[in-house]
From TrEMBL, chain A:
Compartment annotation: Cell membrane
Cellular component terms per the entry's GO annotation: plasma membrane
Keywords, ordered alphabetically: Cell membrane, Membrane, Transmembrane, Transmembrane helix, Transport
Any GO BP: transmembrane transport
Organism: Waltera acetigignens
Gene3D superfamilies the UniProt entry points to: MetI-like (1.10.3720.10)
Similarity remark: Belongs to the binding-protein-dependent transport system permease family.
The keyword Signal belongs to this UniProt entry's keyword annotation: no
Principal location listed in the UniProt entry: membrane
Parts of the chain that traverse the membrane: 27-46, 96-118, 130-150, 229-249, 281-302
Name of the protein in question: ABC transporter permease subunit
Membrane topology reported for the UniProt record: Multi-pass membrane protein
Record keyword Transmembrane helix present: yes
Length: 315, 295
């Protein structure tokens, strides 16, 4: 739909007049949008401008604009540091593990819920599985550490079965698994919602026709449901690849302790630690820029792919 | 209802399906039930692992301790204030951004949208963000938790999409032709027709405020300003340290009490969620749907 006063390009004068008229007509909109714009500049673009300290030796006297310029010193320092590969490995390992394990549970749950015949049962399952999404990260980590503490229920179970108690929270080898599984526990119900709505949009006549032709439920899932939620799944999967370097600050930081540092130290937590605790402002910012730029590129690439694959770009 | 003889494979399917969903239900519910039951049990039962899903040796000392704990109550109060003020700021600013961007012949709309979308996909690193808050003099104040995140671009896009697609444009256009100005169109027509989306946004923002930890952790330094999440974390940490030091009988008695206290703290921290959950459940699904339809 086009606005009423459609202008033909050849009438340039008319066009300019219309522009002015439109601006005059909507002067209040400019007034309204001014405050959000101020917000955007002060709280979003100022820090981006402030990111130039990655190219300077930041000191408090010189601040953002007058600290000595050092070029790419801090970027080189990061790429050459022994931390680089360890951090990249931990970050990518954690992300990929999370993506791979996170794909299927919501799909399975959504399909299962789609075929429940007793309504209240389906509703109950959905309501309960959906709830953990709203629990704060602090409390999720609290629940996890209580369940898995040396005197917690899981270790009691292991001991009753004749095993040795495991110090889950302090075991570097288990960190990724704890992180990923607690994420699956928390988010499967929520992530299923989007698939449930995709399944609800499937044409019921397809199912009826298939049933008439003698298809059983397994076949209907295989040939009707799965193909119709595929585009959604692909998009979500591709999009999650765009955030591969910027995973969960908060949760990793909360799960981190001296014992599991070998596997729990990721780029985000390193940026925090050397920046705010270690006061190496320029170095930390350089790593942060690296992270943001890689993410930006990934997101653009991923968006292009999603565009090609499913004909729906997300940006 | 159609009554048909079900084929064997379908019968197997329904059995598998029900079992699968039962397992899902139990996996999610068991830890939650165990936390609640443990928080109401006697310390010795908890330490010996006798509590499953029902309290053993009924005991509410832990809750009494919580309600006499000053810092927890202060944290609760602070979190409520920050959430209410923060959500109001969020909603007002989000509407102020979303409405102009939803008007089709608003010149400058594309540029402004691009400015918003850019900050969604390129975030400034931690330190420049921190220094910015510091330079603005907001450190250790409530506004450090509210202003930097005043507009979530994602939520703004949801609102804009709703204004564009769910409110008949012709209606607004004819109101404008009748001499109704943009502000009156917004206040008298658009907002009353957007109650459902506003409810979703309020929920999104309020839950994000209530649950957020990191901002409060880095920006606040005075204890009397801490949010509930920070206080919860501090208590969990300090009691963990206490537990590790326990050697004598008296100390391990204390450690057992603390164990129960931790369970109670988890329940205490979730109370607002439990109260709001039915409401959340109703509106959130709608939000996910609207969010998945992009504009």
């Amino acid at each position: 739909m086009k606005p009423k006063k459609t202008i033909r390009p050849e009438h340039k004068k008319q066009h300019a007049k219309n522009t002015i008229r439109s601006i005059k007509r909507h002067w209040q909109l400019y007034l309204i949008v001014a405050l959000p714009l101020v917000y955007l500049i002060v709280f979003k673009y100022m820090p981006i401008i402030g990111s130039q300290i990655a190219f300077r030796d930041y000191n408090f006297k010189g601040g953002i604009w007058h600290s000595p310029f050092v070029g790419l010193k801090y970027f080189k320092m990061f790429f050459q540091s022994p931390q680089f590969w360890r951090l990249m490995g931990n970050t990518l390992g954690l992300s990929v593990y999370g993506i791979v394990l996170g794909v299927f549970p919501p799909i399975i749950l959504a399909i299962a819920l789609n075929y429940v015949r007793v309504r209240w049962f389906g509703k109950t399952v959905q309501m309960v599985t959906y709830m953990p999404y709203f629990i704060s990260t602090v409390l999720i980590v609290g629940i996890l550490s209580q369940m898995l503490s040396l005197t917690g229920p899981v270790n009691h179970l292991i001991e009753n079965l004749g095993g040795q108690a495991i110090h889950f929270m302090g075991e570097p080898k288990l960190f990724k698994t704890l992180y990923v599984f607690s994420d699956v526990w928390q988010k499967t119900g929520y992530n299923a919602v989007i698939y449930i709505s995709a399944l609800a949009a499937v044409d019921q006549e397809l199912h009826e026709a298939a049933t008439v032709d003698g298809a059983n439920i397994w076949q209907r899932i295989r040939y009707i449901d799965i193909p119709s939620i595929m585009p959604t799944a692909v998009i979500l999967l591709i999009m999650s690849c765009g955030h591969i370097l910027t995973i969960g600050y908060e949760k990793v930081l909360l799960l981190q302790n001296d014992l599991n540092m070998a596997t729990s130290d990721i780029i985000s937590t390193y940026v925090y630690r050397i920046g705010l605790s270690g006061m190496q402002y320029s170095y930390s910012t350089a790593i942060g820029i690296f992270q943001s730029v890689v993410s930006l590129i990934l997101l653009l690439v991923v968006n292009k792919i999603a565009d090609k694959v499913a004909d729906t770009s997300l940006i | 209802m159609k009554r048909k003889v079900m084929s064997k494979s379908n019968r197997i399917f329904y059995i598998v399906n029900t079992v699968l969903l039962m397992i899902c239900l139990l996996l999610v519910a068991m830890p939650i039930l165990n936390v609640v039951a443990s928080s109401l049990s006697s310390p010795s039962a908890v330490i010996r692992g006798q509590v499953s899903f029902w309290p053993k040796g009924w005991n509410i000392d832990a809750y009494e301790e919580i309600f006499s704990n000053r810092s927890l109550l202060t944290g609760y109060k602070n979190s409520i204030i920050y959430t209410i003020v923060g959500t109001c700021v969020n909603i007002v600013l989000t509407i102020m951004a979303a409405y102009p961007l939803s008007v089709k012949d608003f010149i400058g709309r594309k540029v402004i949208s691009a400015l918003f979308i850019f900050v969604m996909i390129f975030t400034a690193p931690l330190i420049p963000t921190y220094l910015n808050v510091k330079n603005l003099g907001l450190l250790d104040s409530m506004w450090a938790l509210i202003l930097p995140g005043a507009i979530s671009v994602y939520n703004m896009i949801i609102a804009r999409t709703y204004f564009q697609n769910s409110i008949p444009g012709e209606m607004l256009e004819s109101a404008r032709l009748d001499g109704c100005d943009d502000i009156r169109v917004l206040v008298n027509m658009v907002l009353p027709l957007s109650k459902s989306i506003l409810a979703v946004l309020v929920l999104y923002y309020a839950i994000a405020h209530w649950n957020s930890y990191f901002d409060a952790f880095i920006y606040l330094s005075s204890e009397n300003k801490f949010t509930l999440q920070v206080v919860l974390r501090n208590i969990m940490n300090s009691v963990a340290a206490l537990e590790e030091m326990a050697t004598t009988a008296e100390q391990s008695m204390r450690a057992a009490n603390i164990e129960v206290l931790k369970y109670a703290i988890i329940v205490f921290g979730s109370i607002p969620l439990i109260i709001l959950y039915p409401f959340v459940q109703k509106h959130f699904v709608k939000g996910v749907m609207i969010g998945s339809v992009k504009g």
